[in-house]
Each structure stands twice: as structure tokens, then as C-alpha cells.
């Protein structure tokens, strides 16, 4: 049943407790290979707060080509690192929306390439149709609050205030 679900997935997070033998993870990877499932993946090395010295390095050597993110439920920074790793697996562009000077804490996530018009349309189709551009903050802006047209390409992490 799990293999059937994975066939429709876009990516995988393989969880492995640090300190556990890596053979279990190797067996899982062999089963995935045998089933022809080759998805982008990251290893979440759980229980990192209980790990002994060198256990994370040993896991990294065992998995070779896969990214390993050390995670502990007691460490918010490690959970943020896992969230960022999962976002990078999706390939989506996250754009934060700003309205009346306040930035929404939840981004709009769209498949690249993403333009200002795409973001406006994701908010509402009528806004997408009448969108003239946006004020922009982030890496695709030359300066904070730059006015850009509706066709401006956005980068992951940009903040936009749509001008309708």
C-alpha cells in the first residue's frame, strides 16, 4: 500500500532515528529501487537531541547522495530546517502577500515560473484580470518596495503587494 501511495507522490521524507543502524534505511531504499520509485528525497535524522558523537556523520556516509537534516522535536530551529528542506524538494516558489502594510504569515505557493499576474490570479481570478503590477520586496527587486509590472518574474521568498 505504501508503494502505491509513493507512486503518486512528488517527493519523500525518509525518517530515521539517529543511533539506529542504517541497514533499515538501506533496505527501504533497496525496496524503493526495486519498485522503480525514484523521487526527490531527504532523510530526517530524528532524535538528534539523543544522538551520540559521530552518529549524524555516520548516517550521512551511509546514505551518500541524499541530504540529511538532523531533527529534534525539542529544537525549533531543526524543525525549521526540515521545513525548508521539504520546501526545496517541492520546487515551488513561495510568495508572501502584503496588504495595507501587513504581510500575511502564510505564503502562496506556485509552480515556477511565477509572475505578479500569476500571484494575483491565485488570490482571485478577477484580481488577476485587472492586476497592473505590484510593489515588491525580496531578491527579485532592485530595492524594497519597487514597483514592477504584471509580467515581472518572482523569486522564492518575495513579498508582493498587488496593485489592481
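Sequence proposed for the structure above (164 residues):
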Amino acid at each position: 500500500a505504501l508503494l502505491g501511495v509513493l507512486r503518486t507522490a512528488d517527493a519523500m521524507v525518509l525518517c530515521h532515528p539517529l543511533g539506529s543502524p542504517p541497514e533499515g534505511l538501506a533496505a527501504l531504499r533497496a525496496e524503493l529501487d526495486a519498485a522503480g520509485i525514484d523521487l526527490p528525497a531527504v532523510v530526517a535524522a530524528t532524535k538528534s537531541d539523543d544522538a551520540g558523537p559521530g552518529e549524524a556523520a555516520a548516517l550521512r556516509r551511509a546514505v551518500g547522495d541524499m541530504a540529511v537534516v538532523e531533527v529534534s522535536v525539542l529544537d525549533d530551529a531543526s524543525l525549521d530546517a526540515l521545513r525548508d528542506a521539504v520546501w526545496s524538494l517541492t520546487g515551488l516558489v513561495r510568495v508572501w502577500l502584503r496588504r495595507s502594510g501587513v504581510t500575511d504569515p502564510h505564503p502562496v505557493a506556485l509552480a515556477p515560473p511565477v509572475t505578479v499576474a500569476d500571484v494575483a490570479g491565485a488570490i482571485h481570478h478577477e484580481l488577476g484580470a485587472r492586476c497592473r503590477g505590484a510593489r515588491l520586496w525580496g531578491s527579485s527587486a532592485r530595492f524594497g518596495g519597487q514597483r514592477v509590472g504584471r509580467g515581472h518574474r518572482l523569486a522564492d521568498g518575495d513579498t508582493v503587494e498587488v496593485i489592481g
